[in-house]
Amino acid sequence: MPLVLYNTLTRSKDVFEPLTPGHVGMYVCGPTVYDLAHIGNARPVIVFDVLYRLLKTLYPSVRYVRNITDVDDKINQRAKDAGEPISAITERTTRLFHEDMAALNCLPPDVEPRATAHIAQMVAMIETLVAKGFAYEAEGHVLFAVGAMADYGMLSRRSKDEMIAGARVEVAPYKRDAGDFVLWKPSPDDLPGWDSPWGRGRPGWHIECSAMSLEHLGASFDIHGGGQDLVFPHHENEIAQSTCANGAPFAHTWLHNGWLMVNGEKMSKSAGNFFTVRDLLEQAPGEAIRLAMLSTHYHQPFDWTNDALKQAKATLDRLYTALRATADIDANGYDEVPTSVLAALKDDLNTPQAISHLHELAGALNKATELEDKARRKGALLAAGRLLGLLAQSPEGWFQAAATGGPSDAEIDAMITARAEARKARNFAESDRIRAALLEQGVVLEDSAAGTSWKRA
């Protein structure tokens, strides 16, 4: 069966066909790095990690781009409140984001562009929009003129009044239309700024992704993804900027994961139901968090509960028990993903259905009696798990981590990778901190010319 995805742009499940046969380009909006990632941030990373794994299974060439927003008013405010340099906040928060997503067994993207490294591309795109009559300068700002684009609003399908209300933008007196949005704004000396034809300033949020996707995927590409909250205004404005500047269609398929709730309510610090990924990693392994997220279809709202996390951990206990019972059986050569699991994911990433097939595969493995049959069924279970980003460690590692409350194999590997990056950057204080943190959790590192190995104390 072909790959079918729900396209927000068409409001239908469409058969996916790459613009260039055999090659897929995908852009997903990444984090604004000013604070720890919360579970709402984690959901799109997990969802699009599964899609990335599926695309790599189906097509010979996949280019996954996920950006880092490291210039933003929230970052500026956090630096001011903390009395800390902006660069220190963005570097630390980016590193912690990488650690957290690795603990959830999410693969890194192929390209991870940073907004501050693409200012020249943003300025060039804004200049093009001004030259074409889609943008104008006013009191040091450059704004996109929504009235100049006939089909503005094609993604969200909101009325003009709804778009103005939903954008929550300042209706400044210098705007020609209340819905016009900022492409460039002036920066005082105490805030980040770059020289431009309109004076020292910084980019608006929306232009960042338009410029970075153009740089790394071209004017037209296959898939653009993110959370439901980004449909308007962010993705709507990306479409406007990109199509008007480039004179070509932008992303052809738009995927959006549903909202995340906590115990039936919107997550917020004031409600006392706000959880970071790090909070949850103290309660359960990253794989359990990942499985809990995937137990609801990505397009639907997801309600995070303690029961969901407990159920996910119990499911993984059962799956790893089946693998532990066959630990001495070599499954090499039996690494083809079962048709049932592949079909479920090709049907608009139906992860709940795919997970139900994991149960069936584990049951069949438990019942197998012949050696070859056990090897074949074990290989099928592992292959299905890999496609979902699950069963990524040894059964021994899973149960030992569960018994001791220590980190899982995958979490240890993620921390070792972060330590290697710190050492490469000559950040030895951070390298020592990671080593000490692992030792405190009963994990001993051993460095050699061949690399870093580890063992549980």
Let me know the largest β-sheet. Answer: 4 strands, parallel
Total of helices: 16
Rg over alpha carbons? 24 Å
The total strand number stands at 15
So what's the overall shape?
Answer: globular
Q: Which regions have little confidence, pLDDT < 50, spanning 5+ residues? A: none
* Assembly of the depicted chains: single chain
Percentage of residues assigned to helices: 40-55%
**What structural category arises from helix and sheet content?**
alpha/beta
What is the terminal separation in angstroms? 49 Å
**Spatial sequence of strands, sheet with the most strands:** 4-3-9-10
Percentage of β-strand residues: 15-25%
Instruction: Name the average pLDDT.
Output: 93
What does this structure look like?
There is one protein chain. This protein is of the alpha/beta class and 457 residues long. It is 47% helix and 16% strand. The protein contains 16 helices and 15 strands. The protein has helices spanning 39-58, 73-82, 86-103, 119-131, 160-167, 205-217, 231-246, 277-281, 286-294, 306-324, 339-346, 351-367, 371-388, 395-404, 409-424, 428-440, and strands at residues 4-7, 12-15, 23-28, 61-66, 135-138, 141-144, 181-186, 201-203, 221-227, 251-257, 260-262, 265-266, 302-304, 443-448, 451-456. Strands 4-3-9-10 form a four-stranded parallel beta sheet, sandwiched between helices. Strand 3 (23-28), helix 1 (39-58) and strand 4 (61-66) form a beta-alpha-beta unit. Helix 6 packs across helix 7 (231-246) and helix 12 packs antiparallel against helix 13.
